[in-house]
Amino acid sequence: MKIAFIGGGTMVQALIKGLNNHGITAGVWMRNKEKLQQLSASLNVTPIQKLSQLETYDCVILGVTPDAYRQVSLKLDKHLKEHHILVSMIDGISIEELDDVFDMHPKIIRMMPNTPVSINQGVVVMSHNEFVTEKELITFEELMSKLGYVHWIEERLMDAMPSVTGSSPAFIYMLIEAMADNAVSTGINRQLAYDLVSEMMIGAASMVQQTKQHPGQLKDEVTTPGGSTIRGVKALEKAGFRNAVSEAMDAVNKR
Q1: Among positive and negative, which fits the CA dihedral 144, 147, 150, 156?
Q2: In whole numbers, what is the pLDDT of the chain averaged over residues?
Q3: 65 is in an annotated binding site
Q4: pLDDT tens string 133-150
Q5: Domains of the chain listed by start with CATH number
Q6: Helices (DSSP H) in 132-185: which residue ranges?
Q7: pLDDT at position 255 over 80
């Protein structure tokens, strides 16, 4: 499956890096040709100079901002063919809204990846319309599986995905930074602190995935009566840790 990206922002670059890791080269079209040249100099991509060149690609991935999608889609309209799968990464724009821009009814997949796809450890959440065939869905899922975990969900849930998987790596990075800062204050080397905290998080996340136990139960297994862990948990609760996380996620999802 030949992939072409429309746009060259952070998420597009993350996807390209992940594909490059598997020896896959994607095409890229950008309105700013100077930035396209810079992108092609830093990543293994095929610059697309004219939208008419999209005809040789199977899948066209829209990686533009919500305020630019209509203008770009109108330019794309006459170049979109029946064989194309149109994949949208545009936050907050439904499949129906995107479909309305085009004269034809394109095969549409709506997708929300996150930046760890660049190291093939991302989460890619997707939904689709009725025009995408089963074979095409399987082929595209196989491609995205090279970038990390893939989940198909009902489209009505897609608007919640930015806070759950899209923006949330930033929250985890903040937690790693905060814990590492405290570790440094105790005399631990900063790089070692980053390594220890991130490795701990990988292990804890793996426990949730592999044991299928409730996170609260796993937390209870670490705490002992009157011990240091429960004192730390109590301090987090007093500081409003759970509510702060919930408020951050709600803020992401506000339109």
Answers
A1: negative
A2: 96
A3: no
A4: 999 999 999 999 999 999
A5: 3-159 (3.40.50.720), 167-253 (1.10.3730.10)
A6: 134-145, 161, 168-185
A7: no
- Establish whether 122 is an annotated binding residue: no
The answer to whether residue 239 scores a pLDDT higher than 90 is yes
240 has binding-site annotation: no
* Tokens coding 8: 């060259």
Q: Please check the confidence at residue 2 and state whether its pLDDT lies above 90.
A: yes
- Whether the per-residue pLDDT at 208 is higher than 80: the answer is yes
7 marked as binding residue: yes
- Tens of pLDDT, residue by residue over 149-200, are 999 999 999 999 999 999 999 999 999 999 999 999 999 999 999 999 999 9
Q: How far is the C-alpha of 163 from the C-alpha of 168, rounded, in Å? A: 6
- Tell whether residue 25 is among the known ligand binding residues: no
Strands annotated E in the chain: 3-6, 26-29, 45-47, 59-62, 85-88, 107-112, 122-128, 148-152
Sign of the alpha-carbon torsion through 54, 58, 60, 61: negative
* The pLDDT of residue 104: 87
For the four alpha carbons of 134, 137, 143 and 149, in that order, the dihedral sign comes to negative
Mean pLDDT of 108-128: 98
The residue type of 76 is L
The verdict on whether residue 92 carries a ligand-binding annotation is: no
